[in-house]
Amino acid sequence: MSDKTAYTALVEAHRQLYRYEHLSAIVSWDRHTMMPPKGHAARAAAEGTLHAHIHRLRTDPRLVEWLEAAEQEPLDAVERADLREMRRDWIDANAVPAELVEARSLAASRCEHAWRTQRPANDWAGFLDNFRPLLRLVRDEACLLAERTGLDPYDALLERYEPGMRATHIDHLFGELKAWLPGLIARVCARQQQAAPIAPQGPFPVERQHALSLALLDLFGFDRAAGRLDVSAHPFTGGVAEDVRLTTRYDEADCLPALMATIHECGHARYNQNRPAEWAGRPIGRPRSFGIHESQSLFFELQLARTPALAARISPLLNAHLGPQRAFEPDNLHRLFTRVTPGKIRVAADEVTYPAHVILRYEIERALIEGDMAADDIPAAWDEKMAALLGVDTRGDYRNGCLQDVHWSKGSFGYFPCYTLGAMYAAQWAAALRRALPEADARIAAGDMAPAFDWLHTHVWSQASRWETDELARRASGEALDGRHLRVHLEARYLG
Amino acid sequence: MSDKTAYTALVEAHRQLYRYEHLSAIVSWDRHTMMPPKGHAARAAAEGTLHAHIHRLRTDPRLVEWLEAAEQEPLDAVERADLREMRRDWIDANAVPAELVEARSLAASRCEHAWRTQRPANDWAGFLDNFRPLLRLVRDEACLLAERTGLDPYDALLERYEPGMRATHIDHLFGELKAWLPGLIARVCARQQQAAPIAPQGPFPVERQHALSLALLDLFGFDRAAGRLDVSAHPFTGGVAEDVRLTTRYDEADCLPALMATIHECGHARYNQNRPAEWAGRPIGRPRSFGIHESQSLFFELQLARTPALAARISPLLNAHLGPQRAFEPDNLHRLFTRVTPGKIRVAADEVTYPAHVILRYEIERALIEGDMAADDIPAAWDEKMAALLGVDTRGDYRNGCLQDVHWSKGSFGYFPCYTLGAMYAAQWAAALRRALPEADARIAAGDMAPAFDWLHTHVWSQASRWETDELARRASGEALDGRHLRVHLEARYLG
């Protein structure tokens, strides 16, 4: 009999879970990309049944016994790290009673479903009717999670997306950011005021943009025999590690949003395609965190695609697929990729103003969870912060203000900060790469992206959840997360 | 407390099963249409786990108690029919021990996987190595099923596809067919010898053929908001009733195979889209049988599409989507749709020679299951029957002979007769429609297909599994299955 009986049982239980999660990922991808409208009700029922089954597996009482017994078993370091992640998964699944999970899930479905029509109708009052009870349930859940984990309620939600991160740490990081960001935005805008780049002239047929997107995936190293690219209303990376499904969306009037979305999702996709296959199905093989995941998509988008070197690589692809035009010349293309314009919409924001959108949401959602703000007070806070951070007036425009994101409507709190943590990590990785390999920039400019991909593979992709996030960062870059790298990056690119 | 407690529990159990089968149908469709090659291993593991779970649900010991208790409950006629189908599902799932099901499933996977390369390599000897053990397991399964059901072994397999049908009945139907079919084939071939129709001149780009296929789906009444059309190596209709996924395949050199495959699958698809929604998830709501399912696809293909009236409707669609050419003129098109040419390949066969392909396979597979023929003897039997029925020489050409179909390689026996039963039912439905509504042909010729669709909806689609098959046929057409209608149909069309 093995001396790792309990751990072996846990591995097998997680392997089962992994297979059900595979099914869940594929049908969810299908729902966003393929499913016809009338398929919705039957699919919701089927997915609900599957999620309930997955919940049963994650709350199987035998898991507790095995987790305790495995602590006493002679595990090696990798197995210990795996066990640490198994325990985290168990806490996440078992802290909240199934009835509360279900009530929150129902309230979220209702709120999100209504939001899809309330947003275009600018109907804040209607949204509030569904959002107030949803927020109450999310707070209840946060308090229960807090009790179980000993964390503050917001930290307990954050733990799901960015384990180990605490709001006090984010306060510190974002506090520094707030000190220099508005000034930087103002200086960059002033500097860019004179020379507007030439805009691409459409129309750009969808099939040609799709062929271009596939060429970009090849350029950025996506393995198309182990995944595919499709179209959805909002780009995402789904599917499973062995079969990554990424999406983009095409606008016939402008070819740049799809191009940048494809490159961004490709960063997520390569992280998924390149975690160790021998850890597949084990919690240690999962992505480290949402912030680390975002650091990969943002490395591809910000540290690679928005450089002059990549503009020079992308320019001939644009010419080949969409026909040459002056807007696609490398210098102009790079200026298009680095154009800064404060605006109302987060997902359309450039990399300089984007953190302002995140800070605003973080401050509001934290206050909502900690009970320092009521749902009714969101618009006033939103307007005030948009004016202060970006000088943008959002009063009365809920649709392009506090109703613009899907996150809160589906009860998702604690996710927003990950976007900017990801941008900070991406800048930190780029700095570490340059220190480790001073010729990296020159090689990338010469058309060889291997230095970047190799560095990411060695330090992030191959590590999966082997280390807690701080340790991952220290091993990759010699230090825990430091927001200074984002500032250095932005100042060099936009004021250099 | 309800006086239908046991029946209610059964309904809930089948509703759960239905939801898992939904997941299974969608990921299976995805595997055939979307999945990239490297996704295979992880998908096989995920589907295997799902199928094992579905098997657990279908063999839940509580089902037996509920089935027995429900017999004593005051059920109405619809509930009794539902209970009858529940019992049939239970027998099918519980007659064979899980180990045998798994062993057969593994042997079938191995045999089918190897067949995919053995067929193009014409490697009969290699195929036999896998097929012998598979056939042994299928025979064991048939014998166990026979013991449990009191049927003969082949009938026990047939029961899965065509409940209520027996080999003695098929012997009678196919015996009559064999008496007149070779003579009919010879006369039709002689008659068609002089005037060959003009063949379409390609190439026909895939996107245009796809647009044409969508137009055909509209013409034949498919609800595109409740399903979709994609491409697979072999056309099929999958997905779920609420979200029907049908497929076709495009050949740039010839536009007619995709056209006819789309219309054929559309018949399956409409049967799935139009069974009663209030029976969804209950066994009574399932398709009646594979023969009845095939009668719908063949009604669309043979009784509708291959008529002069439909050639006149399809001709302008071909002109609009592929550009006009002489081959697309209605008269020529109808001659293309009714061209008879004895050949080696079943799926490429016309409606006159098709039954010969089915009779041959039925005779061989029945002998294999009943132990009257060894796997090694298949090629000799095949060659002899092809020569006798169609005058075609298949000696040594395994690839286009006994290796051409996937069915046996995956252990599927008892399915083949359903194709010709379906053609017989389709002819019988068409005759009943004409009797009930003498002006049907004229209305269809004038462009109004409602009479056909309405008849099918009333007599087949809306009935689902309400009646056993003979009763369904009697209620629809006044008689149980009678092969005479197929003969009358073929003689009228080809010798009239």
Automatic annotation (TrEMBL), chains A, B:
Zn(2+) binds at H264, H268, E294. It catalyses: Release of a C-terminal amino acid with broad specificity, except for -Pro. It comes from the Bacteria. Keywords: Carboxypeptidase, Hydrolase, Metal-binding, Metalloprotease, Protease, Zinc. Binds 1 zinc ion per subunit. Its cofactor is Zn(2+). Its EC number is 3.4.17.19. GO terms for biological process: proteolysis. The active site is at E265 (proton donor/acceptor). It is an enzyme of class 3 (hydrolase). One of its GO terms (molecular function) is metallocarboxypeptidase activity. The keyword Protein biosynthesis does not apply. Broad specificity carboxypetidase that releases amino acids sequentially from the C-terminus, including neutral, aromatic, polar and basic residues. Belongs to the peptidase M32 family. This is Metal-dependent carboxypeptidase.
